[in-house]
Design goal:
With 451 residues, the protein is mainly α. The protein contains 20 helices and four strands. Helices cover 66% and strands 2% of the residues. The strands form two sheets. It has a two-stranded antiparallel ribbon with strand order 1-2. The chain has a two-stranded antiparallel ribbon with strand order 3-4. InterPro entries: TMEM214.
């Protein structure tokens, strides 16, 4: 029997029924998961048989009634999508555009990141170039020895010396060290380039360097210093002289690139403090020249004080003592330095420097009178017979052994011989001298006979 038109459900009823059926079949209540177009393209296509039991979107494994029911549900889904598209015609487009917009945003963001990275890299590159350009440090003003010496205040020095004398009473070595420290601080602003003492000693005659660097010290500062030095014993001053010499030779070794003296027991000093060491050394030698005589055996017998490179320092020291006492100067020359000239290792430079020293001593005002009258000092002769023998050898060599320095020895020989033979005739001291002279004269005659 055919159903009448009136008994057929209306469109609204059909839609309501389909919605109820669709709600039962779709537990997500019509909501769909939005995915990006790019990600959908990357997904793999469904296989012929998937876990949902569909083949090409059609359910399998059910009875025929269920198949028609599935077809009705699919028809209802299509109808619902049409209705949703009519009520919100721009929803899908909006969703698609939003997805594309987000994709573009991500792409733009990546581009922006790339551009930012490029910009930062460029800026870093510029910054790196700027870092390579080192800023020049402002040059420190060069302070000369005379400028530093001029800033030493005599009253301040006097107060300092009074303080250390009270603080270290009975400890003369410490007092002398502190005395050197005071001048070390005063001259610490002077660079080694302003006082290249090695070059000065090597390239200048003794007459030009004898007063360096003491000539820069003012008279009040010098007088305050030597008055304080006079209060110390010869023994303490002798130890202080060796300390100063060790410091100078340590600096010499460092400038020559050799092993530093500080590794062998001496103290390590900076080139900047050498001005102070020379200043205090000269002050002691000029105020207490006998302190030099007390250390002559050490300078003669210790290897670290010997050698061509150390000779200018030793000669300079003797020249300082000679400023105060010509007899001490000649004594040091005859007992320590003359042997170098007559030795096998002598050379023109050594001979010249040693001759400069004795010529300077003998050229001093009234030098002959002073030396002849003081020919004996503390029981020792200024020019002992052994020194006279060496003097004879270098003054009167064989004709083949004559050198340029021979004439210079001939010029000073008569004065030195007079000092060597000075004394009361017939005295016990002179009889000893005569006997020694006779001994080496016979020896020299025998050598001449066999030559």
């Amino acid at each position: 029997m055919e159903e009448s038109y009136e008994s057929y459900p209306s469109e609204e009823q059909q839609i309501a029924a389909l919605e109820a059926a669709h709600a039962t079949a779709n537990p997500d209540h019509g909501w769909q998961k939005v995915t990006y177009a790019k990600k959908q393209r990357k997904q793999k296509p469904q296989t012929a048989a998937d876990p949902a039991g569909k083949i090409n979107g059609v359910l399998v494994g059910h009875d025929k009634g269920n198949v028609f029911k599935s077809l009705e549900q699919q028809s209802e889904e299509r109808r619902r999508r049409i209705l949703e598209a009519e009520t919100t015609p721009n929803a899908a487009a909006t969703t698609a555009r939003a997805g594309r917009s987000r994709d573009r945003s991500d792409d733009d963001s990546d581009d922006d990141d790339d551009s930012d990275d490029a910009r930062v890299s460029k800026e870093n590159g510029k910054g790196g170039e700027e870092k390579k350009v080192k800023q020049k440090k402002p040059k420190k003003p060069k302070i000369t020895v005379s400028e530093a010496a001029a800033k030493i205040d005599e009253s301040d020095l006097a107060a300092f010396l009074l303080d250390i004398s009270a603080s270290y009473e009975g400890q003369q070595e410490i007092q002398l060290m502190r005395f050197a420290d005071y001048f070390g601080r005063a001259f610490s602003v002077v660079s080694s380039a302003q006082f290249p003492w090695v070059k000065l000693f090597r390239e200048n005659p003794l007459t030009k360097i004898a007063d360096v660097p003491l000539s820069y010290i003012s008279e009040p500062v010098f007088k305050t210093s030597i008055d304080w030095i006079s209060q110390h014993s010869v023994e303490a001053l002798g130890s202080f002289l060796l300390w100063c010499v060790d410091g100078i030779l340590a600096d010499l070794a460092s400038q020559q690139g050799g092993p530093k003296a500080s590794k062998k027991g001496g103290q390590q000093t900076s080139s900047k403090s050498q001005v102070a060491i020379f200043v205090v050394l000269a002050m002691v030698l000029r105020r207490k020249p006998d302190a030099l005589i007390s250390i002559l055996p050490t300078l003669k017998e210790t290897s670290k004080y010997q050698g061509q490179d150390k000779l200018p320092v030793i000669v300079w020291m003797v020249a300082q003592a000679s400023q105060a006492d010509l007899a001490v100067g000649l004594f040091s020359w005859a007992h320590n330095l003359l042997a170098i000239v007559s030795g096998k290792n002598n050379n023109p430079q050594s001979r010249d420097l040693i001759l400069q020293l004795v010529e300077k001593i003998l050229a001093a005002p009234k030098a002959r009178t002073i030396l002849v009258n003081g020919a004996v000092r503390r029981g020792e002769r200024l020019v002992p017979p052994s020194a006279l023998e060496m003097l004879l050898r270098v003054t009167f060599p064989t004709s083949s052994a004559r050198v340029k320095a021979t004439e210079r020895f001939e010029a000073i020989y008569h004065t030195l011989k007079e000092v060597a033979l000075a004394g009361s005739t017939g005295s016990k001291a002179m009889r000893q001298v005569a006997q020694q002279i006779l001994t080496f004269s016979l020896k020299a005659a025998g050598e001449s006979k066999h030559s």
